[in-house]
Design goal:
This protein has eleven helices and ten strands. A four-stranded mixed beta sheet has the order 1-4-5-8. Helix 8 packs antiparallel against helix 9. The radius of gyration is 22 Å and the shape is globular.
């Protein structure tokens, strides 16, 4: 393992551009896709280098563009990337959610068709799960796919579809048996968003951004070969994908930006004595918060190791719940420390960093809803971890 660590360390030192070692502005997040944007050319160079190594999907088989690393090697690689301060080369729902379930449930043809384009950042995916009237009760979904012989005909609506307006494809749950018990009449379908009949409408949030969309399907024809897993067997796939989603939104979505230390905001608010936060009570409060964040980080790492070994399980619900709680607490604390400077929305009278903190606080309100609500995850923990009765 020491040889691999040195190999990874040397390669990163030789290929990681200096501008990719600093905090990542939102506009430089590399999502890939058919129409990618790379405001910083180094972002593309770093992505291309990682793709060539197979390190955008290090544990995936080399036949699909991965590097075929085992879990221990993948962890070493992650440690070396973090040690170097490297930004993630690629943000991708395909990598985090769809790819792992395709590896387990997809046909050989589906793997060969879809996985390499995910690894190479050529296709951007979004998730079609939530529907109006079927939020936390996901299995109540009504979007239907009718068997028309040589294709599926899809009609219905999804909501809270993250980045659907920028994605190329959507993996969606559809009802294929309207008469079966709700968990038994669902299938898992892959739909090209350029197909006639698909329309997307962004939803503006309280933070001012519009990462979520409404997605409509009006007589959309989908090839038969785009169904993953057996007809009416999509619920099993859906649950496994949710476990990967909860693991990754916790590790990447919530904790990804810690470019501003909460200690520095506290020192600015109350001053410092001998390099420490001047207020002892505030110092203790921040220490408790940092310990909680550290515990979440360690648990997240443990979950990632298990997932790299093919054992993604209910621990993802623990990580999702705790990460949302930590991120929201961090936002509340930051805005409290900013005082009146934390009341700004825009304008020259406010510092850009302070405005960013306020918007992150507002955005964090969604953390306990997206990827499975905190209430749903507490139910999972109570039943499947603690063994409590219904």
């Amino acid at each position: 393992m020491s040889d691999f660590r040195q190999l990874a360390r040397d390669w990163i030192a030789a290929n990681l551009p200096a501008s990719i070692r600093i905090a990542m502005p939102e506009e430089e997040i590399p999502w890939g896709g058919r129409k990618p944007t790379y405001p910083n050319p180094d972002t593309k160079a770093w992505l291309d280098a990682m793709i060539a190594q197979g390190w955008t999907a290090p544990t995936w088989p080399s036949a699909y563009g991965g590097a075929g690393l085992d879990a221990a090697q993948a962890m070493i690689l992650q440690e070396e990337l973090q040690r170097a301060g490297a930004r993630p080369a690629l943000f991708s729902f395909g990598l985090w959610m769809l790819g792992p379930v395709l590896l387990e449930y997809g046909t050989d043809e589906q793997k060969a068709r879809f996985l390499p384009s995910i690894v190479r950042a050529e296709t951007r995916w979004c998730q079609g799960y939530s529907e109006p009237g079927a939020g936390s009760d996901l299995a109540s979904l009504r979007t239907r796919a009718e068997d028309k012989g040589d294709h599926w005909l899809v009609n219905g609506q999804k909501i809270w579809t993250s980045y659907a307006d920028k994605a190329d494809w959507i993996f969606a749950l559809v009802r294929t048996d309207m008469d079966a018990p709700k968990h038994l009449g669902i299938s898992f379908l892959l739909i090209d968003l350029q197909t006639p009949g698909v329309s997307v409408r962004p939803i503006e949030l309280i933070s001012g951004s519009s990462p979520f969309c409404e997605t409509f399907f009006d007589d959309v024809k989908v090839p038969k070969e785009n169904m993953v897993g057996p007809l009416n067997g999509g619920w099993t796939i859906a649950k496994k994908l949710l476990q990967y989603e909860r693991q990754n939104v916790s590790a990447v979505g919530f904790g990804g930006d810690r470019s501003v230390r909460i200690e520095d905001l506290a020192k600015r608010a109350v001053g410092e004595v001998d390099g420490r936060i001047a207020d002892g009570a505030l110092r203790a409060r921040i220490a408790r918060h940092n310990l909680y964040e550290r515990a979440v980080d360690v648990t997240t790492r443990r979950t990632q190791i298990a997932a790299d070994s093919g054992d993604v399980g209910v621990l993802t619900s623990v990580v999702k719940y705790a990460s949302a709680k930590a991120h929201q607490a961090r936002g509340e604390l930051a805005v409290e420390l900013l005082g009146l400077d934390g009341l700004g929305w825009s304008g020259d009278n406010f510092d850009a960093g302070d405005l960013n903190e306020t918007r992150k606080w507002l955005r964090s309100k969604g953390n306990s809803i997206e990827g499975g609500t905190s209430e749903i995850n507490l139910n999972v923990i109570s039943k499947r971890v603690l063994g409590l009765p219904d």
